[in-house]
Amino acid sequence: MCELLHTWLRGTGISKADRLYAASLVTAEATVRALLSGPPDQISLIAMGDNGLKRTDEDELCAIHLRNRLEGRRGDPDAIRRLVLAGGEVERFRDPARPYLHPQDVDIALDIDRYDFAVRADFENGRPVARVETPPITMSKSPI
């Protein structure tokens, strides 16, 4: 998941952003539409990886896919799925010592554009709040 929300919480300069989204492959296209639907002229994509401490294939590929879509390229969902499945992160979902990780989650996470909404993050009363945002279907000029 390309988690802009986590970056904001860690105080890495995103707190001055006009809009923040917690993006993932399952909401990629809707997130792109949301980002292109209004200001600003600059968009920053941050792949958070494993708790912001370790890079992960899914997050890196999610950011690349989002950038491709923001720049008007079609992307390659099948290639993204193959690369993620070939990486080492998927194995933790099959580890019986981690019953809180479900193997079915891998299939859901790799169902690119499964959901037609973006997840917008804001702070209310000092606490992070995420809400579903359904962006318009038309896309404007790329700010990247």
Explain this structure.
It is a single chain. With 144 residues, this protein is α+β, with helices and mostly antiparallel strands. The protein has one domain. It has helices spanning 4-9, 28-36, 57-70, 77-86, 103-109, and strands at residues 2-3, 20-23, 118-124, 127-133. A 4-stranded antiparallel beta sheet has the order 1-2-3-4. A hairpin with a 2-residue loop joins β3 and β4 (127-133). The two termini are 20 Å apart. Residues 1-12 have low confidence and may be disordered.
| Rg over C-alpha atoms, rounded to the nearest angstrom | 15 Å
Number of strands: 4
Please write the string of helix (H) and strand (E) elements.
EHEHHHHEE
- Helix-and-strand structural type: alpha+beta
Residue share in β-strands? 5-15%
Instruction: Strand order, main sheet: write it out.
Output: 1-2-3-4
Number of helices: 5
Mean pLDDT: 84
Instruction: Kindly state the percentage of residues in helix.
Output: 25-40%
Residue windows where pLDDT falls under 50 for at least 5 positions: 1-12
Q: Characterize the biggest β-sheet.
A: 4 strands, antiparallel
Q: Given the C-alpha coordinates, what overall shape results? A: globular
Task: Give a brief description.
This protein has 144 residues and is of the alpha+beta class. It is 32% helix and 14% strand. Residues 1-12 have low confidence and may be disordered.
Question: Helices and strands in order, then pairings?
Answer:
Blueprint: E1 2-3, H1 4-9, E2 20-23, H2 28-36, H3 57-70, H4 77-86, H5 103-109, E3 118-124, E4 127-133
Antiparallel strand pairs: 1-2, 2-3, 3-4
Helix pairs in contact: 2-3, 3-4
